[in-house]
Amino acid sequence: MRREDVKLRMLARRGDTGARLQLGEAYLTGGPGVSRSIPVGLEYLQAALPQARRQASVCIALHLPLRELLEHGLLETLRIAAEYEDVGRQKLAAWHLIRGELDLALECLGKCSAALTSHLASSVSAHTSGELLQALQILRAIQPLDIAEVMACEARQAMAKGQSHRAVRMLELLRDLPHAAHGPVMQQLIADLVHQAEVAGHDLGRLTVGWIEASLDRCAANGDVRACHVLGRALSGLPCAHLAPENLVNAQNLRKAAALLLRAADGGIVTAWLHLFRICSDYRSSVANPTLARFCLEKAARHGLPEAERRLGALVLRDATHIEPMEQGVALLHAAAAKGDVLAGLLLRSLLLPVGGDNEEEALAAIEAVQPDAPLLAMRLRLARVFGLTKLEALSVNPSTAMRPWGLVVGHNPLVAKARLCEPRAVPATTPDAQRCLEQAASMFSAQQGESLAPEGSLRARSLQMRRLFHRLQISETVFFASASSQQRDAIRIGTKWARRQQQILRQVLA
Q1: Nearest CA-CA partner of 407 in 355, 338, 502, 487
Q2: Distances (CA, A) of 274 to 85, 310, 351
Q3: Which InterPro entries match (predicted)?
């Protein structure tokens, strides 16, 4: 360390303003015997600021670019420098221009020296923020990196406050500043802004499609899964909420879209599996692949997406020829309906047989009348009414073993002569009341097996008991049991036959 530097430090410690100014400038610029250190330089200059307001503030504004001034929280110091020198006024004007505050920027530039004002005269008269920033860039008051980083910081602050429209207006200035517009900082900002626009429902102003696509493409290449998701949908022609594909990309590219959506899905964006299913299931597209489409749909359903569960459930039911796939399809539709999918609920109700009695009060009164003499029979009557069971199904089903999370399975019945009508049947619970009734029935019949209730006896005994009670209490069977032809009953046991009867609904569900 040189003797002069040691002497300056000693004077600065004693509070010498000149020494502090000299040392502060030396640390900001770096030089012989003093390595550049912004924090140390600022410490000296801020200590000298109360005694040397002009010299300290102008020195800071002169030797630090705009982005570092804002990074160190020196906006107030910049305002002080703007009171004395053009360098402070120019950088403060640039900050106002980046924020979209044109009037304040013009006020700062109007206080500049005559020579500088004449140099900026054409831009000032035009009142164009982009042209003013370009002129300040030519004068070396700011750098392209200053504009990009400061604008990114200000725009992100606006986005955090829910003022995305302000961020869009800031970015529109960069059309006149191509060197600042295409850096990685701005491209990531564009990608984040597109995502927020999709979520918040606002547009992207006058941002060019080419700039948006290039930014999304760069961010996707860097591993940003949200950018992959947005760009993949746009390239495949799918809208991103209210944003049309033509507002984000210049042309479709299905192969690239499929790759991007696969990357997004692998990165944890589960809806990307559903978008992949859409483009791979379209036989007219260049990426048509039925096997991959089914795989993507299964992945989406496994993640609990209602639309995927409904579509997959409908496909499984359509192809089902025995009870196991029927159960799987009904379980998927039940999961989708529980999440509010109306079409899934419509499909589930098509698997129920209609019950003739529409008078709910009459049915409840009849059940209450049966309850004291035969509580298990009363529970069977409740089940028959809410699940649309035939008399034979209601009297033979064991709720404790037939219950499923989505409803019940009426088991194989050897007492039915026709083979196709004795096969098991999947019956969904289409209402919360039906599910509660099934749970109560399962609990009651489990208790009966534990001998806490009197046994029911054989199917013949149950039927005889019910007939006698109905005759004594003058109850009609049509109030509780479904009445359907053998063709109707057969159609809801086998998925392929059910699908032929429900073609219109299936087309709507799978569209």
Answers
A1: 338
A2: 60, 12, 26
A3: TPR-like_helical_dom_sf
Sorted by sequence, the CB contacts under 8 Å of residue 396 that are 6+ apart come out as 410, 411, 413, 415, 459
Token digits of residue 24: 């502060």
Buried b (16+ CB within 10 A) or exposed e, 427-463: bbbbeeebbebbeebbebbeebeeeeeeebeeeeebe
- Nearest Cα residue to 108 out of 138, 74, 140, 141: 141
pLDDT per residue, tens digit, the chain (511 aa), is: 566 767 777 887 888 888 888 888 888 888 777 788 899 889 988 998 899 999 999 999 988 988 888 888 999 999 999 998 888 888 888 888 888 788 888 888 888 875 555 555 554 444 566 667 777 776 677 777 777 788 888 888 888 888 888 888 888 877 666 666 677 888 899 999 999 999 988 889 888 999 999 999 999 999 999 999 999 999 999 999 999 999 999 999 999 999 999 999 999 999 999 999 999 999 888 999 999 999 999 999 999 999 999 999 999 999 999 999 999 999 999 999 999 999 999 999 999 998 876 678 888 999 999 999 889 999 999 999 999 998 988 998 989 999 999 999 998 776 665 656 678 899 999 999 999 999 999 998 886 655 555 566 788 888 899 999 998 988 888 888 988 888 888 888 889 999 999 999 999 988 8
Does the global pTM surpass 0.85? no
Q: Which two tokens stand for residue 487?
A: 């063709």
Encoded tokens for 93? 């004007």
Q: Domain residue spans in the chain?
A: 3-144, 150-263, 306-353+500-510, 360-446+458-483
- Rounded to a whole number of angstroms, the distance between the first and last alpha carbons of the chain is 80
Q: How far apart are CA 370 and CA 364, in angstroms?
A: 10
Identify which of 380, 390, 387 has the alpha carbon closest to the alpha carbon of residue 407: 387
DSSP string, 435-452: HHHHHHHHHHHHHHHTTS
**Spatial separation of the C-alpha atoms in residues 43 and 359, rounded to whole Å:** 86
